[in-house]
Write the structure tokens for this entry.
Amino acid sequence: MKFDLEAAQPNIHVREQVGVHTHPPDENEIARSEFTQRLREEVSTNPGLPPKRVFEAQVATEHRRIRRQARPSADPVITCFTAQGQYVPENTDLNCNCSASDLGHPKGRLRVYRGNNEQISGSYGEIRVAFSEANVSRDDDGTVFRCVVEWATTDSPRETSFTLHVAYAAEIKQFTANKQHQNLTINENSSITLTCTALGRPTPGMIISKDGNSLQQVPKGDHVTEIQTSNLTYRRSQATCDLTGDYVCEVDNDLGRQSSNHLTVLVNFPDVRSFTFRVNDSDTNITGNIKLSATCFTTDTDYDVTCSVIVSDVASKEAEGLYTFSAANAFGQEHFQFKVIVNGVDTF
């Protein structure tokens, strides 16, 4: 600490320098004022002593007092009152106290900084100051508040900090099928990738389901993270017919939940390309007036193929026999048999 020694030279009256201050007096100003006051009192109560002797005695006393000064024994504490424990919900207020059990000797003072900017300053000897942040938003997340004990005789103040974590409800950013935001039609054995991207703090739980049945999920986060987006992916490299259906993504955290729009996926497989007829398990040519025809169709719900075979204009016994009907596509073929009896009962 430095003192203005010229303020009390021998044979010169002690004077105070008066000025206009726009801020609380700092520790040097307070120390000079206190020293000047004590010196004035000693000079007035000891008129028989030379002023120089009184001045030197006061300087020695001041040096002894400085040596007896003590730094604060503990760091200050920040206590915040929030509705959700360790984080502050978006669009609510943050209310905190900066306090210290020991301000040192002589008494220091508390200051609160938001980042590098001073937000509030207490008086010397005041052990608690309150500070607040109104209507916090997610953009405020990560803001650091520092509670500092500034002590009169040191350049190394004690301090502690608090990092603001802003929480907000889970919400779906996008839900896609093969990077499309709309219903998807693919061929059998093609790949399919469903991706759900969500926002939310704390980290939301996420579920991708099909027709009400869960396919892929991640649990809800139990703490605040700095990650703002979460992703959940369900992938099949070879799509089968049973993947046809309605898909939805659901997200949930402590502050809210949301469901995506439904995405309908339709898995096609190759149409029936060819029909083959055989009679009596041979390639016998069908002659005469016998006519054979077939019609096949597929249902979208269960992918069953239904074929209707018509044998018409049967005019002779030559139409009798065991018929085999085969239907084929790119993945294989299926067949069924039926017997034709002329002037009798048809058996299938």
Q: What stands out?
A: Confidence is low (pLDDT under 50) at residues 1-22, 283-288. The chain has two helices and 22 strands.
